[in-house]
Write a structure and sequence with these properties.
homodimer, 229 residues, four-stranded antiparallel β-sheet, 7 helices, elongated, DNA-binding
DNA sequence: CGGACGTTTGAGGAACATCAAAGCCTGTGG
DNA sequence: CCACAGGCTTTGATGTTCCTCAAACGTCCG
């Protein structure tokens, strides 16, 4: 092994093994010798709110693990309108379609300040063939994407707009409170309702005490949220 | 190798290598020696319309490759209502969540007469660690699930009910015409609209010649379908 | 301060759900 | 062969929800 390669491996081992959210991420149960397969550095990056990790139809080189923050996957339509198809939080993977196709299918845009690990697709492809640990992580990520998509369809696209907003708030609060409350426009694009309707519902939830906000952070009253129909 | 194991392997090789839709399915580029890992028989089964491949919260033993027909994945809600979260056609895989979790997340119900290959989960788990061919097939299936889910969200849950129904018809016709036209109730559950609205739209499409039906088979006029707003 | 941007609120109208009834196929049994 | 029951589909009348267009309000920042 060449000296600079050794340095690279040690560098990756150190970075990933000390990662505070390692239990959540792709490399969760990678072993020391697995890291020898990582020929390229893993880059840790910070993005401001509103930045694009990648754009629709960019060519594909990287997969991103979200370390903190919130990312939306946006699907633009030919007519100029758009839809948010997924939200990604800590531990989620952005751009896994990279593993099989040649262009990203959506844009990934940060909704608040976000830190990510940027991993070369090549690396993952090589490693996933050798390491059964990574393989398991990958399939469980795919699994999560699928079940999230079903939950989305089941809870965020049917019922009244009030019910849908309540379900979105419960979804957002599920991981941690206080949680980041998206803009009314994003709530609309998430639930297929207009910005105005999103605003009316949110304003109403605030008045009845179902929702409390401070800046863009929010908490909810679960009991009230579940009673909305 | 014991005689009956040899027989088993040969049986599987023969079955899968002669499969007329093999290019579409999970075992697409499996090599002869990969088949030695298949310790259990692959069962080929026929189901009548309306039968359940598996039910929500069944314990998981099998994955199903759809050989012909149409299958809906149904997600029931606590309040008794339900939503169809996905349609599966020739070449699609039902129950891949089996690979990672311990119970199915939905019910899989046939919408017309359907033939499937029933494959033991154990088999796939063993084989996917050894065969990079199967591994690639699996990741590309996951990929398809994800992009389908996004298309679903983008085209089948936003816009007017007429636009959504038109998009569903285009989706169904995309693979082959004539295609199976689902019941009005299923169209409703697919698009999050009521049965009555689905019926009104379909009846109207028939009157304007956008849609033609014979029994439960349908063809569409793409030009008209794309103009609906 | 003024401008840009996001949020809130209002009035009117269109789209869709709801409730209800009638029509239409299909299969079954007299 | 016809009658009829049961399921699915179509159609109608009515009410509610949500969209559209518009304006006012608040907040952040140069």
């Amino acid at each position: 092994m060449k000296p600079d390669k050794i340095k690279q491996v040690l560098n990756n081992i150190e970075k990933c093994q000390l990662c505070p959210i390692r239990h959540l991420v792709l490399f969760a149960d990678l072993q020391a010798d697995d890291f020898q397969c990582l020929n390229y550095p893993i880059k840790e990056l910070k993005y401001k709110a509103g930045a694009a990790l990648y754009k629709q139809e960019d060519t594909i080189d990287y997969v991103y693990t979200i370390r903190s923050g919130l990312v939306k996957l946006v699907h633009y339509l030919p007519n100029g309108s758009y839809r948010i198809t997924r939200l990604l939080q800590q531990g989620d993977l952005a751009g896994i379609e990279a593993l099989n196709s040649s262009a990203y299918l959506q844009q990934a845009i940060t909704m608040q300040d976000t830190t990510v690990c940027k991993i070369l697709v090549k690396n993952i492809q090589q490693l996933s063939l050798k390491s059964s640990h990574l393989y398991r992580q990958l399939t469980s990520q795919w699994q999560k994407v699928q079940s999230d998509a079903d939950i989305w369809l089941t809870y965020l696209t049917m019922g009244s707009s009030r019910r849908r907003v309540a379900n979105l708030l419960i979804y957002l609060a599920n991981n941690k409170e206080p949680f980041f409350l998206p803009s009314r426009e994003d709530i609309g694009a998430l639930l297929a309702i207009t910005t105005e309707t999103a605003s009316r519902v949110i304003a109403d939830f605030k008045r009845t005490g179902l929702l409390n906000t401070k800046n863009k952070l929010a908490t909810i009253d679960y009991t009230k949220a579940k009673l909305i129909q």
